[in-house]
Amino acid sequence: MTSSKLRGRSRRAGPQVSARVVLAVLGGTTGFVWLVLPGMTTRTDAPVAITTPAASSPAAAAPTEDGASTADLVLPLVAVGAAGALAGYGYVRRVRRARTRTTPGGAALSPPPVDPGVPDDRARAALVAADDRVRAARDELGFPRELFGADAVAPFTGALGEAERELAAAFRMRQRYDDGVPQDPAARRQALAGIVGRCAEAERRLDVAADGFRRLRGLEQGVGAALGVAEARFRELTGRTAAAEAVLGELPERYAATASASVTGYVEQAKDRLVFATVRLNQARQADDAGHPEEAARQLRTAEGAVAQAAVLVEAVERTAGELREAAGLIPAVLTGAETALAPLRDTAGTGGEALAHVLHADSVLSSVRQELTSGRPYDPVGVLRRVVRAIAAPEAARAAVLTAAARLTARGSTAAAADFVATHRGAVGAEARTRLAEAHRLLTAGDSAGADALALEARALAEQDVRVRGNPYTAAPVPAAAHTAGTAGAVLGGIVPAQDPENAHPAGFTGRPGASGA
């Protein structure tokens, strides 16, 4: 198939060639006229005596001289005018080429200002909205899977996977856009439109599956069985939260403060989500008993969102404790692997240059790590692994297998930590942090542990900055406190319910976007 660029070039080739031919012919004609002009205006015969009678008046001769002078000037004037027109036309074409040049070989002028503000804002908002809905649908899908089994929810698992792929493509486009690709202003506007289109398609995939998902759950006919599943998971999480609190209390005794910094406050947040879920589960049961199935369904789905986020917070504490134990056990082998990787570099480093600087830096880091390990003070095992892996920074082929394992452990942990934070604070987290997180996931899957780790740490930092700068979007309305569910502020920060109407709005998920008020 012929690409659009080639088709466009073919369509433009005709007029451009015609213009060049006309210019060449006109230029040649002008030059020829200029060359033959003297022969056309100068007589070549021998001069003869004037035979006009002396008595002839000057007035009689004047017409003949004026006519000859006018004829002599016409062609030069035409030639000069044509040459001037050609020069002006050439100048205009050169200016236009200089303004639109994007290829090397000349200093490209700054592109004319575009109006990217509104399209860019729209693309960011589309990414946030689609990401929120996909995350909510992922959380929601777990409850009917537990009730009906994996086979029953397989079509909806497939629809969610399709939505996730569309969203991943949108985030990839956004990452490239943030990296400056493409550079052409028109192409950048098209990229933003493509991002919005991909996000819309992700949500459309969920919309297509929404009716079938609603029929499978059957909440409008009664929430009894689904309510039992949610309450059972709630009770399980209550016990796990207490255990996670004990684990989190022990981590500072074993490790440095930085080791558990990523999950500080998570137990309190998990308890807050469970308090919110308690109220909504009770309201769901009351509505179901009173014969209000739609209200019962809305309350149940909201409670499920809170239970799912409490699970994320508790699992983050459990996973962090496991990663620290694994990292601590890996450190001795990693130090040995680092020495193995450095040995050939020491032999070829010479007496100067980058290779020697690299070896000296790595030796300094390894020496510092050994001192830290033998000091008797608590340390951060994951942080130690990250320092060693970054100090060696050898190609994967030259690394010991244990260094590759250590790099993957740190990247996996930082990516999961960033994902947990975004998931439980998505009410305040913007598009940039989510984009970096999506790129970290992509690089981790592709085997680029170093790139994934760096982007995951950046994503977490950006997300925390969003929360600090924006704060909790929820502001309680001036009504009696009894009208607000306990834990509403945390539920709004977590994106479970919208800040505009947290008490009456439907949660996001398969069956709708957040913000629609209940009937």
How would you describe what is shown here?
Mean pLDDT is 81; it is low at 1-80, 82-118 and 515-519. The protein is globular. The two termini are 53 Å apart. The chain contains 14 helices and no strands. The longest helix has 56 residues, at 293-348. The chain has helices spanning 4-41, 58-100, 117-148, 154-178, 185-217, 224-254, 266-289, 293-348, 354-374, 381-392, 401-424, 431-446, 449-470, 488-493. The protein has 519 residues and is mostly helical. Among the domains are: 115-217, no CATH class; 318-462, no CATH class. Helix 3 runs antiparallel to helix 4 and helix 11 (401-424) runs parallel beside helix 13 (449-470). Keywords: Membrane, Transmembrane, Transmembrane helix. Residues 498-519 are annotated as: Disordered. The chain crosses the membrane at residues 21-37, 73-92.
Rounded to the nearest angstrom, the distance between the terminal CA atoms is 53 Å
Shape: globular
The fraction of residues assigned to DSSP E strands is: under 5%
Radius of gyration: 38 Å
Query: Number of helical runs?
Result: 14
Order of helices and strands: HHHHHHHHHHHHHH
